[in-house]
Recover the amino acids of this structure.
C-alpha cells in the first residue's frame, strides 16, 4: 500500500512553487509504502531507529514470520528476551513492551489518536517511550497518511530543499516560509524532497557549505 495522492495535490504545489513544479514533472508519481495499522507502525519505527534500512527490514521480517500481524496481544505475551532475539537492543525491546502494555491497559487509545489533529497526535505519540517528535511526524505521514506533515527535524528533507532551491542553509524561519507556501499538501512536497535528496533528479547538487578537512 502506498501513500495516496494525485493531481489535486501536485497541481496545487506546481502552481504555488515553480521550482518544485519542475521537480514534480521530472520525477513523476512517487510511490512510498505506508503501514495503515497504527500499532504496527509504532513498533516498526522503534525497531528501525538508528539502524540501516536493510537491518530494519531483516528484523521486521523475522518478527512478521513469528507473529504474522503485529498486535498488542502478541507483543504483550512475548518476553523481552524473545524480542531481543530478533536482533533489537534491550532498550528497544523494553520500549515495545511498554507500548503494548499501555495499549492493553487502555492507557494509550489507538483509535483516539487516529482522530486527533496533527499537533495533538504528535504530542500523544511522542509521549511514548522511544518515540520522539520526528518519529511521531513520520508515523503521521507513513501510517495515518496525514496530508500536511513537514518535518524540520528530517535531514533528508532539508537536503532536498537545499538542492531544489539552491540554499546553503535552511533555518527554521526559511523552513516555515516554505511550510506556509506548500500547505495544505506538505506531505506530498516531502515525498519529492526525499526523492531529490536520494538522487532522483540527475545533476542536482547540495548547496550546503563543504566541511573543511
Amino acid at each position: 500500500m502506498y501513500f495516496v495522492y494525485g493531481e489535486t495535490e501536485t497541481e496545487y504545489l506546481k502552481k504555488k512553487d515553480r521550482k518544485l513544479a519542475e521537480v514534480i514533472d521530472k520525477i513523476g508519481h512517487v510511490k512510498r509504502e505506508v503501514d495503515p495499522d497504527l500499532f504496527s507502525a509504532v513498533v516498526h519505527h522503534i525497531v528501525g531507529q538508528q539502524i540501516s534500512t536493510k537491518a530494519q527490514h531483516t528484523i521486521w521480517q523475522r518478527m512478521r514470520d513469528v507473529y504474522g500481524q503485529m498486535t498488542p496481544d502478541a507483543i504483550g505475551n512475548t518476553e523481552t528476551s524473545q524480542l531481543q532475539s530478533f536482533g533489537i537492543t534491550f532498550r528497544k525491546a523494553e520500549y515495545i513492551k511498554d507500548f503494548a502494555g499501555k495499549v492493553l491497559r487502555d492507557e494509550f487509545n489507538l483509535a483516539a489518536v487516529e482522530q486527533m489533529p496533527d499537533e495533538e497526535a504528535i504530542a500523544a505519540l511522542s509521549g511514548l517511550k522511544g518515540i520522539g517528535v520526528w518519529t511521531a511526524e513520520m508515523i503521521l505521514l507513513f501510517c495515518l497518511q496525514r496530508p500536511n506533515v513537514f518535518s524540520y527535524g528530517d535531514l533528508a528533507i532539508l537536503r532536498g530543499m537545499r538542492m531544489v532551491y539552491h540554499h546553503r542553509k535552511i533555518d527554521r524561519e526559511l523552513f516555515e516560509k516554505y511550510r506556509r507556501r506548500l500547505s495544505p499538501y506538505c506531505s506530498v512536497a516531502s515525498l519529492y524532497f526525499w526523492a531529490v535528496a536520494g538522487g532522483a533528479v540527475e545533476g542536482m547538487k547540495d548547496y550546503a557549505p563543504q566541511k573543511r578537512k
Q: What stands out?
A: The chain has a mean pLDDT of 96. The chain is about 60% helix and 0% strand. Residues 53-67 form the longest helix (15 residues). The two ends are 44 Å apart (CA to CA).
